[in-house]
Amino acid sequence: MDQEINVLALVKGEERYVFLYNDENRVETLRTLGRYAANPELSFSWYDAAVMSKKIRDIAAEEELDAIHGNSRFTFRHEEDVI
Predict the structure, then answer these.
(1) Exposed e or buried b per residue across 23-40, where buried means at least 16 C-beta atoms within 10 angstroms of its C-beta
(2) C-beta pairs of 42-47 under 8 Å, 24+ apart in sequence
(3) What is the DSSP letter of 40?
(4) pTM above 0.85, yes or no
(5) Where are the domains of the chain?
(6) CA 16 from centre of chain
(7) pLDDT in tens, 32-71
């Protein structure tokens, strides 16, 4: 599997909001931020949604630039891969 998983987290008091997403579900993740912000039972605010949305978009832009320039943000090797 050669697909990156992005992790975005927010800690607000006792609450933890952790989002795992990839390129295929980025838009759904952005929608989820809006649903959380609209939910009065959560401490997740519209400001939180805006900040995290910007971060998601920034990460996407970085990934696009890396792809254009042939760079990879992370490279993981298993011990079996080492010759």
Answers:
(1) eeebeebbebbeebbeee
(2) 42/15, 43/12, 43/13, 43/15, 44/10, 44/12, 44/15, 44/17
(3) T
(4) no
(5) 6-81
(6) 15
(7) 999 999 999 999 999 999 999 999 999 888 878 877 877 6
